[in-house]
Amino acid sequence: MPELPEVESIARSLTSERGDNESLLGHSISRARVAWKRTVASPSAQTFQRRILNQQVKAVGRRGKFINIRLSKDSLLIHLRMSGDLLLGRSEKPMGNHSRLQLYFEDGLQLSFNDPRKFGRVWLVEDAESVLSQLGPEPFDTTLTPARFHDMLSARKRQLKPLLLDQTFLAGLGNIYADEALWAAQLHPLQPSNQLTRKQARSLLTGIQEVLTEGIRRNGASIDWVYRGGDFQNYFKVYQRTGEPCLRCGAKIRRILVGQRSTHFCPRCQEKS
Known about the structure:
The strands form 3 sheets. A 5-stranded mixed beta sheet has the order 2-9-5-4-3. It has a 4-stranded antiparallel beta sheet with strand order 1-7-8-6.
């Protein structure tokens, strides 16, 4: 599933004009086609196709794992889920082999939501907060200080790995970056959150921010889903390295299931206290 760095990379690509890339900014929608109705979570597919017409793209951003395309009247929110991707180019035919929704712009540009597994969803809403309000803080939010993060951890008696995946706790983290951040902070994935010291909480927040920054710098990781960009998978410290030596201490990386999710850690560096 695409996580914060992958979603951020896609959002940035929609406003980049480097190389062959084009920017969506300033373009107006002349036609919309919903090929699979369940792709549109709100409103109905029919209303979506009518309501989005003639709206102009004003900005493209990200909140958690959501892409937020701000239009002249509404916000178009896109959650890629397991296999979604956005393709931008010039074509009359739907782009991608599994295009569930296409937006056509006045100058021939097309934005296609390609989603083989059909789990992705889009919302066209007047107020983006009607969908995003339940998300936790962004990992890079300047108000997310180490002290506040420690308070957040202390207020919940949960294992660290499932808590970090909870989007109402912290927005954007998924399986890959949670494992990498816990390794960076030398914390066991099953450590109860309310047992962390202030120093450990600071280390965890720093680890989260560092692995996400590196993930964004490398345009995300190109594994587990249909993603065409990044190479962060070549720099994993623990994720999908089961049985390989820890790059810090040499112990063999272990894999366990936590909440039915593969979890990778070093049993020596990340010993549970």
